[in-house]
Amino acid sequence: MPRLPQVVIIGGGFGGLAAARRLARVPCEVTIVDRHNHHVFQPLLYQVATAGLSPGDIASPIRWILRKQDRLRVLLATVTGIDSAARLVKLDGHDPVPYDYLIVGAGVTHSYFGRDEWSQVAPGLKTLDDALAVRRRLLLAFEEAELERDPARQRFLLTFVIVGGGPTGVELAGALAEIARQALRSEFDAVDPASARIILIEGGPSIMPTFPEGLRASARRALRRLGVEVREGAPVTEIDPGAVTVAGERLEAHTILWAAGVAASPIARDLGPGLDRAGRVIVEADLSVPGHPGVFVVGDLACFTHQTGQPLPGVAQVAKQMGRHASANVARLVAGGKTTPFRYFDPGNMATIGRASAIADFGFLRVSGYLGWLLWLFVHILFLIGFRNRTSVLLQWATAYLTYQRSVRLITRTPGA
To answer: What are the beta bridge partners of residue 303?
Structure first.
């Protein structure tokens, strides 16, 4: 029996899973490598961080997701490098994995714009561990304020700053405002949770910059109705324990969260020299990497400018479509054919801002408020993996809507917390 081509996929995110599934009927052997054993539905990470959902509601084991697929194995390992000359993927503490074709969907991590020391003070939100650590910080702030008798210290403990006005920052701010104004209402004696001060800081001219101005204005109004202070055109110049400096003004805050920037996975450096300023790999029109035969890059790690002249956004739909196309090109090469250019179809852009309010831009249709929220609910339930997850999330959202409660207000310790 002839040897089958070896396809290695780095990353079990949206791009990696889409690629693996597309290869199910291709005569090849697939290896998917990830340092976590689960796939996370990242658009809902903020719901775990704000006690709306449990980790298991938005995550599923990669082995379970791909359990019906033949000629596929899953490796729980950390990728330390790529040797494209020898066609090897290097693993930490394990033998390298050979490949004929490689699809890299390693994603991105937090970027503090050269101020990495800020990460200790202002954690970001990319993994389940991040979400649990953030949840713990948020809930502990209210508990500590209940024990505090000094009014000034109470105000400090109940001041929250979120840096970054993109979807993650906006959704975090809205959900946190709901916790303070609704879920924790009447549960404390010495402190009023509704007195919490929540500040959303955006260094650029506007929050939600990828949305049309009308929807951005709707998001601002929704945040302000929830009591969130929105500061735009206000770059952060310093972050210290307990304070953020914005345009010369020092804002004292017990809890600071980072939602402002991303940086490419370090393994992108092995696929250079064609990297953009964020360290992402500049790919060809077919998602291949110049000078690295048989290598394709998908998702947040890919800088693809061939369609609009600007890089595609780092959202789930981009990663999914790239993953499917990269594996389709691998299938063409396995069959002796030629690759084809990738073209992204934009299904729309959505974000929720607290209870019963969201914005949605489908190009031909732009909606906000309650209707936008209903559309947001439908889309996110639809794209969750697994019937159990869909059912659980739908039930918890329905309960939260009717009772104003957050179902997972548990303070637990997480690694490094």
So the answer is: 282
Q: N- to C-terminal Cα distance for the chain?
A: 53
**pLDDT tens digits along 214-250:** 999 999 999 999 999 999 999 999 999 999 999 889 9
- pLDDT 10s digits, 31-69: 999 999 999 999 999 999 998 888 989 999 999 999 999
Residues with a known catalytic role: 171
Measured CA angle at 116 (ends 114, 119), to 5 deg: 140
Two tokens, residue 121: 């003070």
Considering the segment(s) 6-110+262-334 as one domain, its CATH architecture is 3-Layer(bba) Sandwich (3.50)
Residues in the chain: 417
Model confidence, pTM: 0.90
Write the CB contacts of 95 (distance below 8 Å, at least 6 apart in sequence).
none
Cβ atoms 328, 342 nearer than 8 A: no
Give the single-character DSSP code of 96.
Answer: E
Answer whether 91's CB lies under 8 Å from 76's CB: no
116-259: what fold? FAD/NAD(P)-binding domain (3.50.50)
C-alpha to C-alpha distance for 160 and 397, rounded to whole angstroms: 24
